[in-house]
Design goal:
Helix content: 40-55%
Oligomer: single chain
CATH class of the largest domain: Alpha Beta
Strand order of the largest sheet: 2-3-1-4
Structural class: alpha+beta
Shape: globular
Number of domains: 2
Distance between the termini: 40 Å
Order of helices and strands: EHEEHEHHHHHHHHH
């Protein structure tokens, strides 16, 4: 398939993601994450790009960056090539290290930017690695709430924190729910969808005054609700412990 040209962001802000080929954990070791951090800082000095947020997971990297799109391409190319050379040399291998080229999405406004930063910082929380973003060593969260700076500049830090009354307010912001969809790996996307589904079902139980699944008296209404949220018949059948045919009949019967 031909590659689509990247659309330049009007705000010059981008959410960027790179992942290991075949889902490989190319950043799994502490030395690997440290090396990537050093490369990111080094390559930032070569281009007119500002880092607003980052998180290094075991098999992928999230970045929030500001700059011209050509500078962005140059920066990501330099980082990926340099890291691939390091990784192949370390593991005595040849061939690609990253899955295709990096992915990016435009950030449209300040609210969207803050959502991206929160999403990036919450990556290890959503993955079950830590309970709070500040517990994770390899993200920009601690650059915002401590005095130590590595990839985040002083001015960037002041601008981001300027929207909050305190650092505690910034940390509380990360606990807020956010249904907006962000640039994700397929695994993150599935987890995000599962989390939204759980919230839908919990809300349904609360509205009906139920605490247990066996109290459901009107299974059809829950089935229709889940289908309206875009779930497949097979997914709904699994969630409601019934058959695909039962789901089909319930949806057909309750649709106008």
């Amino acid at each position: 398939m031909p590659r689509h040209a990247r659309i330049e962001s009007e705000t010059k802000h981008y959410h960027v993601m790179s992942r290991g080929i075949n889902k490989d954990k190319i950043f799994s070791g502490e030395s690997d994450k440290k090396k990537l951090m050093e490369l990111l800082r080094s390559k930032l000095e070569d281009v007119d790009i500002t880092c607003v947020g980052y998180c290094i997971m075991d098999n992928h990297l999230h970045l929030a960056l500001v700059g011209e799109i050509e500078e962005l391409r140059s920066f990501m190319k330099k980082v990926n090539i340099s890291y691939a050379m390091y990784y192949n040399r370390k593991h005595n291998r040849i061939g690609p290290v990253f899955q295709d080229r990096f992915k990016s999405e435009n950030i449209f406004n300040e609210s969207h930017l803050m959502g991206v930063i929160r999403y990036i910082h919450n990556n290890p929380v959503n993955a079950g690695m830590v309970k709070t973003p500040e517990e994770y060593k390899w993200s920009s969260m601690n650059e915002y709430i401590t005095k130590e700076l590595f990839l985040i500049g002083v001015e960037t830090k002041e601008n981001v924190l300027g929207g909050f009354n305190s650092k505690d307010g910034f940390m509380e912001f990360h606990k807020q729910n956010d249904d907006r969809e962000y640039l994700e790996t397929k695994e993150e996307e599935r987890k995000h969808q599962d989390k939204k589904i759980r919230k839908i079902i919990e809300s349904y139980f609360k509205d009906k005054g139920m605490v247990e699944e066996n109290q459901i008296k009107d299974l059809d209404s829950l089935i229709v609700l889940l289908i309206e949220r875009g779930l497949s018949y097979r997914k709904v059948a699994k969630l409601t412990n019934t058959s695909v045919h039962r789901v089909y009949i319930a949806n057909k019967k309750n649709r106008p």
